[in-house]
Amino acid sequence: MWESGNEIFPIKRLIDFCHFLNVSIDYTLGLTNTNYKLVADYNKDISLKRIKEFRKENNLTQEKLASILNTNKSVICGYEKGRYIIATPFLYTICKKYNISADYLLGRTNNPKYLN
Questions:
Q1: Which pTM value belongs to this model?
Q2: Is 40 inside any structural domain?
């Protein structure tokens, strides 16, 4: 179902899949044509900080980011407080719109932050 596009790859499974195959999430999602070396697996503490940092760097309130993602402020707050991991479609939307690395946002790499 994931391969056919009938269902969305849950982020935890996507992380496991990429870790097992030693590929970047950016490469797997087609955000880049380059597979790069990862420094770590998903890190909740780094991820929540980077999502908040990303939002502030782009002058987005939680409300504005929620609107872009078609969700509500409490979801964004939950990501930034580490209550739960960002959903795959939201991560993909952010990365495509702002050209930022999914692996960077998830704490799996420090470089690249932005994709070419």
A1: 0.90
A2: yes
